[in-house]
Design brief:
InterPro entries: AB_hydrolase_fold, FSH-like_dom, LovG. This is Serine hydrolase domain-containing protein. Belongs to the LovG family. By secondary structure, the chain is an alpha/beta fold. It has 7 helices and 11 strands. The chain has a single domain, classed as Alpha/Beta hydrolase fold, catalytic domain (Rossmann fold, 3-Layer(aba) Sandwich). 30% of the residues lie in helices and 16% in strands. Helix 2 packs across helix 7. The chain is globular, with a radius of gyration of 18 Å.
Length: 292
């Protein structure tokens, strides 16, 4: 069973956030992937409470998805003027069709652009983690799984290294993923290597996917992942399916909170999440400044 943390009611804050925000130039970097029907600016605004903590240990980089779409209904009231709105993959039938190869190329280009732009902005830290919300969490886990598939292939073929994968940047080594309301199934981002029927093709509408009876080993993610589930989220069953069926039990941490389909803001909800991120990062050999 994954480690599970539920913030107790009435929990007092144990926050010890430093007053001075550090220069993030050399900090390890986390690539942040927004959900469907929003954009990087909105995701950054929604994550403001997480940022207050994480900016002392990580440089957070906010990527824009490649495809335009209508705003997600949940963000219209607050962020309705923050367009254009974007998506990584199709989740509605009315979204424009695209073949899997082109979709993967567009996703890779968008991620590579964000990473290279941050290099030009002065970032020099190693890329260590992925953090995504909703569709961005699904993509984050899928990127981790694609990396794992290339690593497994290199072992089978007794190669010293791996190909670059969809992002196209040599030497990337994602060490963990923070999956905020991420749902199954995962996306096949490398059809030449990944053959599992448990993965949805990048061209398809994920919500129409017919799940297999049992997820095979090739589609089970072994890299460390933190799963954040809102207990009032209407997609909770699919979030739990990602955790229970697509991730190795020994590599996951679960945090549940009394929220809907959104990102935690209140300190008592946020602190267990960032504490868990610090734990996982430390276990991966990354030095952190603990703020809780």
């Amino acid at each position: 069973m994954p480690a599970s943390i539920s913030p107790p009611n009435g929990r007092k804050s144990t926050s010890k956030i430093p007053e001075k925000i550090p220069d993030s130039t050399n900090l390890p970097r986390i690539l942040c992937l927004h959900g469907g029907g929003v954009n990087a600016t909105i995701f950054e605004a929604q994550s403001r409470s997480l940022i207050r903590h994480l900016q002392h240990s990580f440089r957070l980089v906010w990527a824009e998805a490649p495809f335009f779409c209508d705003p997600h209904p949940d963000v219209i009231r607050v962020y309705g003027t923050y367009g254009p709105f974007r998506r990584w993959v199709r989740w509605l039938d009315q979204h424009s069709e695209i073949d899997s190869e082109s979709c993967i190329e567009e996703i890779g280009y968008s991620l590579r652009t964000a990473m290279e732009e941050d290099d030009r902005a002065g970032g020099t830290g190693q890329w260590v983690g992925l953090m995504g919300f909703s569709q961005g969490a699904k993509l984050s886990a899928s990127l981790l799984l694609e990396q794992q598939a290339r690593e497994d292939k290199a072992v089978r073929e007794r190669k010293a290294g791996t190909d670059t994968g969809p992002i196209g940047i040599p030497g990337l080594d994602w060490r963990f993923g923070v999956l905020l309301a991420g749902r199954a199934p995962l996306i096949n981002l490398n059809p030449d290597v990944q053959k599992s029927a448990a993965l949805v093709p990048a061209a398809n509408v994920a919500e129409s996917f017919e799940f297999v009876k049992e997820v095979d080993d090739e589609a089970i993610l072994r890299n460390p992942t933190i799963h954040v589930h809102g207990l009032a989220d209407p997609g909770l069953a699919l979030h739990r399916r990602l955790l229970d069926e697509y991730c190795d039990k020994g590599s996951t941490r679960l945090i549940e909170w009394d929220g809907a389909h959104r990102i935690a803001i209140k300190g008592s909800d946020v602190e267990p999440i960032v504490s868990c991120i610090y734990d996982v990062a430390s276990e991966a050999g990354i030095r952190v400044v603990r703020t809780v």
